[in-house]
């Protein structure tokens, strides 16, 4: 594989950039692989990469119904953070933060990781107390957290509404300075390129039709491009998990919902942090192109539509304008939607299943993108070693049976309520 | 925007309703022996498939009645609505 560097850039400039290698191949599926990963999104691509890199398993195929990076890895608001209170979430996410920091060098691909910091705004004394508690939990787990008072927040984001008579006055906030954003497409492409270079077959336009299961063991997968045998198969299809689970006669603690995001027209630099509204569900950052990147609530009813409905968008942007009134002057450039696995406790599942050789990676709710490297790393470990790693032990499927739920927000099982 | 035909009030905008989830889920019979699996299926496990889906909505800013709606989860087309006490056929 051609290494990307300033020298290769200069060299290729001399030939008008006409001789670059393809970033990844377009192979025909083989009859059999050691491992098949279903789903060519961020998590699937990362899993294949870490299978090859950490476990030396390179006879691997990723099969993807559409094109790689066309699902939620290309539809999110690119936020990366580890500001969790519960140990399982905190340690998993902070492990991921370390992988994010090294990712551009590791993948020889600029993922434009920008650790600009995230601020969760608080709008009451009670909320400040819960943030102090969460911040302390984070620090005990070695994650940076700073509790800010109203004046400190105002100094950092003066464009927020600090006037006296607002419905949700800003009391302060919890900041994780090391959180940030990254270029989401580059993450998918970087993992794809490296996985491909180590021998992984990336097979696009290949839909899963069914599974070959006998005597409690997985033997292979039937696809629109023929049958593929494999003793180990990993499902990385957040957004379509319920559909594939039905083909396996499994019913999972997951509902499929739609989440919208939008960007404004590009404007000059105004916001150098990720900010979330504490009295509702709204988050915002500014992209390198200057667009304000925004998101919030689910549409609120089970959906596979991959496009949003206006009432939710209006509701979310009303929250945004309450938080930062200048947003009302901006024109909307684009809105879009992605379909989410909403798990019943708001935390993901990375685990083995009752079918030998079948592994499950799903239930990412609002937080799939930031988990990409840690999810791929731990899922690769789970598949290669046939046992979960300490980091994803809390993300077990049977926690819904044993009662060890990971309900970070304490919301219960109404997945559409946020 | 969805338009939902409330069996009590007629066609209304989605903004008047709040969502209540899968309407096919049944609580295990009170007083009977309930297995862990039955309880998990009631509390957590959902099919949530692409296509026709019976679900509960409440006409919160209208008659406040709970209703059942059959909707396509991919196209949002609504095929049928029932009062809460009417059985899905």
- The CATH class label of chain B is Alpha Beta
Q: What is the overall pLDDT average of chain A?
A: 97
The total beta strand count of chain A reads: 18
The main β sheet of chain A shows up as: 8 strands, mixed
Taking the alpha carbons of the first and last residues of chain B, their distance comes to 27 Å
Measured as a percent range, the helix fraction of chain B is: under 10%
* Cα gyration radius of chain A (Å): 22 Å
> So what's the overall shape of chain A?
globular
Subunit organisation of the chains = heterodimer
Strand order of the largest sheet of chain B: 3-4-5-6
SSE succession of chain A: HEHEEHEHEHEEHEEEEHEEEEHEEEHH
| Beta-strand residue percentage of chain A | 15-25%
Helix amount of chain A, in percent?
25-40%
Q: What structural category do the secondary elements of chain A indicate? A: alpha/beta
Total strand count of chain B, please?
6
CATH architecture title of chain B: 2-Layer Sandwich
Round the mean pLDDT of chain B to the nearest integer and report it.
Answer: 96
Q: What letter string, H or E per element, gives the SSE order of chain B? A: EEEHEEE
Distance separating the two termini of chain A: 45 Å
What's a quick, concise take on this entry?
The complex is a heterodimer of chains A (418) and B (89). By secondary structure, chain A is an alpha/beta fold.
Describe this structure in words.
The complex is a heterodimer of chains A (418) and B (89). Chain A has helices at residues 6-14, 42-55, 87-107, 125-140, 150-156, 184-197, 241-247, 310-323, 372-385, 399-402; strands at 32-38, 60-63, 79-80, 118-122, 146-149, 172-176, 180-181, 201-203, 208-214, 217-223, 226-235, 254-264, 274-277, 282-286, 292-298, 332-343, 349-352, 358-362. By secondary structure, chain A is of the alpha/beta class. In chain A, strands 1, 2, 8, 9, 10, 11, 17 and 18 form an eight-stranded mixed sheet that branches. In chain A, α2 links the parallel β1 and β2 (60-63). The model of chain A has no long low-confidence stretch (mean pLDDT 97). A four-stranded antiparallel sheet of chain B has the order 3-4-5-6, with no helix packed on it. Chain B has a two-stranded antiparallel sheet with strand order 1-2. Chain B is globular. Chain B has one helix at residues 36-43, and strands spanning 3-6, 10-13, 18-22, 52-58, 66-72, 78-83. Chain B has 89 residues and is mainly beta. In chain B, a hairpin with a 3-residue loop joins β1 and β2 (10-13). At the A-B interface, α7 and β12 of A face β3 and α1 of B.
